[in-house]
Amino acid sequence: MPSPPTRVTISQEDWLDGSAMQQTDGRVRDYKLVYPETGFDPMTLCLGVVEIEPGTHSPLHRHRCEEVYYVVRGTGELEEEGRRHPLKPGTAVLNRPDVAHRVHNTGDEVLQLVVVAGIMLVPLLPQWPTPSPYEVFEGTSASDHPAAGSEPEEELDAPE
Question: Which residue has the higher pLDDT, 67 or 156?
Fold first, then answer.
């Protein structure tokens, strides 16, 4: 019989940050709540919170699992496959595996998303504090993330 999980609850002061999706200047924050790295033993799902400051966006990335966003506050756009979809509080999003996507904050307050994702079993680069399950196609510093609408249109086809 398997042993019970080592952790059942997590408080905000124990959220883990610093993942591959997070910007070094703090304008995109990616908190891991229910993850193996936070002491849980999830079998199929992980839970996180992403916060994006106004005028910036998360890195263009993809991963090998489904992912659901629920918008708690703020407004923005989900960019995927050359299209942009509006986001506002109460919006839910299903991101399919291996589809490159990113989220733009087009509003004037922090865009906060609750993120539920499948366990990502195929590690990719970089290391944090374990191998990252993300394939990130752009940097994670503010200089690599101009404000939404101020950058040229980019192709969303990820590099081969």
Answer: 67
